[in-house]
């Protein structure tokens, strides 16, 4: 930690339910998750002096709804990894003395669409001019482009891609909150409806409602909180391109790699130190890109690594242990749920424990390989 003051996640919680919640607005999901996280940290709302969330409904509206007058505000919105960046920014704010106790919130009515803005690509935008006219509109079709190149260059098979969903369903089967818990096979995945080649339905993320929140504070205050603080050992963020067609290399995420290098360097760890891993899995290929970008496997090797059972229950590298976006929940921006699962694992509170992890790494994706955030979390400071 280079002698800098330590910072912890003192509270972490999700909404009471995730799934289909037509009676909840997005603001209500934010506030419910926030109240649960503040209670988890043993605090009251008046103890919060910093707030962060994405642009809609935004930190000002969330703070007002909760009755908070913050000294520090962050409205960074770069897709599903935004909450990992909020954690990084909160660490910096606490170290700089801008805030003492930061609340990071998420709430999204991805399935019920209560108060949600419609997905739209402005025709005048670069994506509207140079990609949408050719049929790439939204994640499902857009994400096919790098994956098809990866499959061609590295020989990833349809069976290996399908096994990503199989492995995560094995974790979801142990999680009572998971949307999908019934076991599936590779054959089941390949028999599911083809959505956009090569993605079958079971290789695409869920569409759900839900939310969650985190409370960030100085490690010096750890004794104030009822639960063990999860130490933020390292953080990283990066961006690559707003258009998938402009990736540096379709077969790797440069943003994943750079954010991971920064986080691992700050934490002073290598891949051998990692006991638990959460990689944003909007589609089945994203964990493959993440494993390679972070250095857990060589280029072109992650598909076989997953298919050999290394990431499932009993494997050497537990991955997406809540079931991930493919089986647990995916509201549209999924990074918050990856963080809360990392916290649960390190606290020993997870529905499906990944052994006795000491270090958990969280990798978030924003847009279609546009942005990345990485957190290294630890049970103890280093």
Description:
The longest helix has 15 residues. The protein starts with 6 loop residues before the first strand and ends with a strand. The protein has a nine-stranded mixed beta sheet with strand order 3-2-4-7-1-8-11-10-9, sandwiched between helices. The protein has a two-stranded antiparallel sheet with strand order 5-6. The relative contact order is 0.19. The protein contains 13 helices and eleven strands. Helix 1 crosses helix 2 and helix 9 crosses helix 10. With 382 residues, the chain is α/β, with parallel strands linked by helices. It is globular, with a radius of gyration of 19 Å.
* Structural class by SSE content: alpha/beta
Low-confidence stretches: none
**What percentage of residues falls in helices of 4 or more residues?**
25-40%
What is the strand arrangement across the widest sheet? 3-2-4-7-1-8-11-10-9
Average pLDDT confidence is: 96
What pattern of helices and strands is seen along the backbone? EHEHEHEHHHHHEEEEHEHHHHEE
Strand proportion, as a percent range, falls in 15-25%
Q: Quick gist of this model?
A:
The strands form two sheets. Strands 3-2-4-7-1-8-11-10-9 form a nine-stranded mixed sheet, with helices on both faces.
